[in-house]
Amino acid sequence: MKNIISTSILFLLLLTSVNIIAQNSNSSIFIEIQEAFNSEDYEKIISKKSEIYKQVNSKADTISAELLYYLGDSYLAFDSLKLALQIMEEELKVRKNIKHTDPLLIGDIHFNLAYYQQLNSDYQKSIENFDEASEIYKKQSGVADPGYVESKIELAKSYGIIGEHRTSMKILEDLLKIEFVKEQYQHVVNKELGMAYFDIGYYSKSEEILKQNLEFIEKVFGKESIEFAEGLITLAIPYYYRSQYSESELLYTQALEIISKLSGNEYLTENTKNNLALLYWKIGLYEEAIEIYEEIIENEPSLQNASTYSNYAQSLIAVNQKEKAIEYFDKSLSIIKDILGEGSELYIRVLKEKALALNGVLDLENYYKLMGESYSVSKKILAKSNPEYSKYELRWGIANFRLNDIKQAEKHIKAAHNLRAKYLSKNHPLYAESSKELAELSWYKKDPKKAKEYFNETFDNYFAQIEAYFPALSEQQKANFYTNILRSTFEEFNSFAISYYKEDPELLEEMYDYQLATKGLIMYATAKARKNILNSENQELIDKYQNWISTKELISQLYSMSNEEVEQQELKLDSLLSVSSDLEKELSRASSEFADAYTAKKYSWKDVQKELKQGEAAIEMIRYREFVPDSSGIFKNKINYAALLIDKNSKNPELILLENGLELENKYIKNYRNAIRFKVRDNYSYKFYWQPIAERTKQYEKLYFSPDGIYNQISINVLFNTASKKYVLEEQNVQLLTNTKDLLAYNKTKSNSNLAANPTLFGFPNYNKGITESITENQQSASDIVENASLNRGLRGSLQRYIRGNALVTELPGTKVEVNQIDNIYKSNSNENPETYLENDADELQLKGVKSPKVLHIATHGFFLEDNETANTEEEDKYSENPLLKSGLIMAGANSFISSGLNEGARQDGILTAYEAMNLDLSDTELVVLSACETGLGELKNGEGVYGLRRAFQVAGADAIIMSLWSVDDAATQELMTSFYENWVNGIDKLTAFNQAQKTIKEKYKSPFYWGAFVMVGQ
Length: 1019
Hints:
It holds the Pfam family TPR_8. By secondary structure, the chain is α/β, with parallel strands linked by helices. 61% of the residues lie in helices and 9% in strands.
């Protein structure tokens, strides 16, 4: 009951029932209604409505007024606010006509009426009644009175809601001059004053006031109070608008934690979640935002819900649900129109967002119309100093660009940019938004010099954003932020650079430099953060980091369990994922070591060039969608690959452009894979993938090649040159790097020792270790168990589909030979004594326990689950979402897990996923050899490489990795690996040793299927 009442003090009526009865002898109806009211029988009171009005109409006295009070309050109990307000107004008229009515009672009624009118969004009437109440309190009790102060505060709030912020600020500033206010109400008034400054765009002043207010609240009320939570929430708002997103998120989450411990704050909780969701939308975390909105969204026609609808719609647009978004924009606009009118700031803001949605569904006529309406009103109601106003200038400019009115477009986009330059910092995201649009417009106008300047401004801003926001985001959030907010502009620039590089060769230099800065950005930052923490002397920080790793281990265990097992666990997957994300963010905020990982040194192509020797060259391959700056403002359905080539003598990078990216990623890759699979000669792939590059690089003794896109999925060495009848392996010495800037790090850390010490070898795992070993002849066979077992969610079910049918993982006898021979090679040719784990010892637990071996060699089955092989039911969706759970290595005991769903032991199910491999300690590991099938495959993330085992072992610390791109032959792999180690131990560098081993095996096995699957990445 009375759910509508959420804040503020409602003043009490002063007359008692004794006084009323004394004034009116006809008291039977009053006594009956009073008893019902005291027992909270509001239905009975409402049922007596006609009798109450009969009494009121017969005699407008005190008892009639009191009966109206009881009736109005009963309607409030059932949230019938409009009826309640009507009755309260009638009560006020009655009391004003009664002689000798206490003026304070009249003041109380004005206050209560104004408060409920405010809730009902009738702000003009609420202003009138709060003003009337304040004058009565001032006349009767003076300004040192709660009634006067609270009515003034509410009056200021009402003025603020209707956009009269200056009036609101004047009321609040006058209140702060009163000593009584300083003693009793300072935190309330300062909160409202801080938000008033925020509303007019004075974000710095707002932040200053709200920070001081939070300090005051902490001293007076403590950090676990609702007042402190409200202080955190209000301070978070200017942080958000000043693009301090990580600080804002922290304040919101801290407030929600406090509120959760206190009862009766549902309204505040919903408001805070709404703000947090808006923040997530702003930084590209759309799914997180939508999840929150769908949790809090309601159907009541309030301004709060109108804002929620609008924010929800913006997130829906971001995930391409445009029609649904327009539906929610319309709901929002309808509510705002009824309450505030079409001339309100909130109305035109939502109108602007709806216009953007209409542009997305190509309703250009209505898009232009609505954008024009919102812009026209914004000029009347917003100050130019308010950053919100610049949004209308920008969007109106873009709307004119879309309709080819270039003169108007330039006028308004420049106006927006100039306002942002004046009132915001150049690192503010809004500044980059307008500079990007000016870059496109200048490009369209064929002014490459200006376009280049604006692109450079934009990217300076982007890198500042990365430095500011990345430390406080989880890895997945970093990926979402970069992909959703920043990456497309780098792709636009690539198209621009290719269009004008002949006139301005420096554009290729910048293109190369931006690729150095962004390729593998998240992976490098994650690996560096890990290394910084583990090498720090901060034990508390290291313990917190290990706690995070342990939480991720628990998550991995839940992914491998059956549905029934998961249901029995006290810890749930969703909660663990949330804990893991929170721990990661906590590490970020608490750790300079963690944060420093995102302060990237700016490398240029010239830094890479300095590391090259005569006769060496480097190529940065860049995949990008083609963009044309016409009125559509969208990418074309065309993919290009730009190979930027440099050598010791380059004056600037040289471009090798492949404009058939769609064919490379579809038609030609199928031909390449089929040729490998069916062991037939591939006479086409060299021509399409490599010939343009080979024609410019054959003269070099060594080529460092950093792949992108589809080039991560092909083995360069197996491409066959039909002209020379040779493979690339025989014609060129190609070394793969994740990013050519790796040359700087490798050359700095190179040691004179050719063979790494302390090799650790795993091979020939006993996949039947554990449960399946105990099966007797009288019991079901392992195959029977598989046949009868229901497919569980996630990993196990996917693996059952992956190994096709009921067969279990088969032994690989060649891996035992392989590991034993490598062990003997070390012992015979060096002073090393490898740590070797075979059969039962080659399990997941032993592998997770390795500590930075110089060489880690793992010979077993590997797997990569394609999308059609991963989870295909709703229960399994969460498993499929994480690409690092789709690839892994199969260790001892795996058949026990696959067949029965039971783990062989604690922390191991026999399956080491890439998700788990990322947590290994390989900080000083020179080489990881993944002697298994498909260990180089994974989910392709353009610009960020392959999300799979390769990425996992790189994040774990490995300098170089040998991995496979397809299913390999056991015997041929054993011979290849043995040959590689013989070469390496005998003094040949790793890459040459590896290439020679491939050539040796090629003499025996002619098809690349046998010798070409493995590639080495790193140095």
